[in-house]
């Protein structure tokens, strides 16, 4: 009878011990260490038997998802810091009007708060003093907008049309600015609408450009209105050689297509290569990249970071011929609000350029006749 009672007590104790050892710890983790100590001392089991040596899980739910894209101005504790002094927006100057255009671009970039350097290549015969208009603008760029100035010998070559294309060849000197890891060269007849610092952080490649979407899509031509370059002696020699071999009607765009047409990284034209003529010429589908999206001038201008003034036969924005502007301006019959909005945006871009030209350079736009010759405003 006594042995039977002892057997029942032993069975109860073993049951309680089993509960404490194998069940309670998984519901009350705080009791686990104490329970394991009791179990090991009672059953002579090593605590190591219950020690988990698990490593990081590799299940799909445990792998961190890729970080969302952040603007260069954003900081991330998980990303290495960016040395923005290794990058620069570049402008090249060959005459006084292009000097003003370049200073206007740098004013915008400075005002928007770019972290990259601002570099201007200008003719070495310009005097860096306030006794000339050129000198005043150079000093303004340096002192007000933090622009780094680099004097150069303007490169030129005679074209078949009788004009020199110094502008085109000088632009290619961006490939030789090896003091930087990357430079972003912009045509000076553009307006910056948003910072483009994010382009400096694209994967490494010698050259990146947008497509010339307005040309024959079968040709896959690149446009040089915006060129992202990794300067190097080797690449500069390639471009220099192609320039020496170029025909009389080959300009910077033709040269870059010849050298990099099959290898350049493509930058989206939809954000970085908008033309003013897109608001009136029939190539909306080519710009949008599809035939299902409705043309919306407001949406297009809001998403763009850069717009290039290209409205032939309308002259460049520092010149003005109202008759030619009316000739090509987006039509507005007063019934279709989208048409009127395109017209407002288009004229607004030219008005904004004229306003900033006055504010930054203290220059008015130049009135020209139908042949592009300046008009005596006293007439």
Rg (C-alpha, Å): 33 Å
In which order are the strands of the major sheet placed?
A: 3-2-1-4-7-6-8
Biggest sheet overview? 7 strands, mixed
Strand content: 5-15%
Q: Tell me the count of domains.
A: 2
CATH evolutionary superfamily of the largest domain: Spore Coat Polysaccharide Biosynthesis Protein SpsA, Chain A
Strand tally is: 12
Helix content: 25-40%
Q: Please identify the top-level CATH class of the largest domain.
A: Alpha Beta
Pattern of helices and strands: HHHEHEHEHEEEEHHEHEHHEEHHE
Unreliable residue stretches: 19-79
Protein name: Glycosyltransferase family 8 protein
Organism: Hymenoscyphus fraxineus
Region (Disordered): 54-82
InterPro entries: GNT1/Glycosyltrans_8 (IPR050587), Nucleotide-diphossugar_trans (IPR029044)
